[in-house]
Amino acid sequence: MADSNATKRALAAAMKQLMAKMPFAKISVGDICQVCQMNRKSFYYHFQDKYELLEWIITTDLLDPIEPLIQNGMISEGLVLLFTNIEKDSEFYSRAIKLEGQNSFGEIAQSCVEKILLKVIDGVHTGKKQKYSWLTPKRIAEYYAQSMCYVVITWIQSGMTISPRSLQRFMIIS
């Protein structure tokens, strides 16, 4: 398992290195493999395509570190950590948000955030009867994930002109 994560990290580092030079759309699996000196079989053993690699980067770099905080009700701290991690790798995320269309950055990020929020919401609502049948935990997670991703993408597009702490205060108050 440790070997697998080392390989995934090497592929992610290669993707980030390439994205510093060219748009995501122009990067091929062959390019990624060439940078980290691996064969294509190694890539495909770990990921279906470069979009799944991008999803892994978002999950590993941004969401995995904040999940325990969110699970323990430390929402503010989780948001600050999330925004700080984006800010630390601002060049990568500034380029990644330019990925549009099917499999856009926003779509991939929203799906990843939704999964974490659904775990939290399911944990809170386990065994409780829904007052409104249409207001499912999945719909609530979708709403918050969509809203959060919109704010984060807009923040990145604006050049991250406010601090992670200020953005967190805005999101908690609003």
Features of the shown structure:
single chain, 174 residues, mainly alpha
The major beta sheet can be summarized as:
none
Task: List the total number of helices.
Answer: 9
Helix and strand content put the structural class at mainly alpha
Number of strands: 0
Please indicate the percent range of residues in DSSP E strands (runs of 2 or more): under 5%
Kindly state the percentage of residues in helix. over 70%
- CA gyration radius, whole angstroms: 17 Å
What is the distance, rounded to the nearest whole angstrom, between the alpha carbons of the first and last residues? 42 Å
Q: Could you report the average pLDDT, rounded to the nearest whole number?
A: 90
Q: From N to C, what is the helix and strand string?
A: HHHHHHHHH
Poorly predicted spans = none
Q: How does the overall form come out from the CA principal axes? A: globular
Question: Can you tell me about this structure?
Answer:
By secondary structure, this protein is an all-alpha fold. The chain has helices at residues 2-19, 29-35, 40-46, 50-71, 75-88, 90-96, 105-125, 137-157, 164-173. The protein has nine helices and no strands. Helix 4 (50-71) runs parallel beside helix 7. The radius of gyration is 17 Å and the shape is globular.
